[in-house]
Amino acid sequence: MARTYLDFERPIAELDSQIEAALADGKDISDLEAKAQEQLKTLYGKIGPWEKTHVARHPARPHYSAYIKALISDYTPLSGDRKFGDDHALLGGLGKLRGRSVVVMGHEKGTDTDTRLKHNFGMANPEGYRKAVRLMDMAERFNLPVISFVDTAGAFPGRGAEERGQAEAIARSIDRGLSLKVPFISVITGEGGSGGAVAIATADKVMMLEHSIYSVISPEGCASILWRTRDRAKDAAKAMKITAKDLKRLGVIDQIVKEPIGGAHRVPETAMKTVGAAILKNIEELSALSSAELVKARREKFLRIGRSLIT
Length: 311
Prior knowledge:
This protein has 311 residues and is α/β, with parallel strands linked by helices.
């Protein structure tokens, strides 16, 4: 399948073409591959917040369904919020992570035109967040850890969503995450946008892939508000501190998950395997804590965010 190259990745496109041609001719490609890896390492070693924004949105980056297929066995999807209907942007269900029963949920953006439309580009409606609450209730009832995969530009801002109580649904999902009496792990796998992301990320451990972004608004939206033009989105991305490194320093996230050289979209299998190992390690550590200890530590963690900046 043809690769999609971001603007700053163009230098590697020619090398990839040479590798493909050499493979077709049965030639040795070891030198070319080594050169390509070095080029990728150089390129990704100097990208800034705006470039990371594009990496986080890369169409080949693995989404929820890919993580489920790679990491979760015996997966049984659960549908509906028992109030209005089923939301296809936020999916969830039961499954096993390396033999351990878990409840999983996350945003699904889709991989082509049809699936992107079906999943509303990962932007959930109120029924999606009420489904999330339903899943967390079930996890607590059966004492199962919760894993969430966050990848959304934000909750759907349409009129119907607002009429059905979008803000209230997000708030209740945030509150349910904070009060959950079982281990809760969240992974920002791509784009973590606004309350639509936080709604399923009030976890004991919030992990973030190296080239993902997490923010209260998109760089384009921020630029439109501050400077009345989207042309300054690059400036906004830098000012907003949306990268994993910045957010770890600020205490917004707990752990950075390293991606393969060239990003998760280049070697998705390796990226997902690394994420799976990190999730399992955190679940094992959190399982040693009591329900009361989990709730107390989680609430205190979120209350501490930003306090170190106040002097």
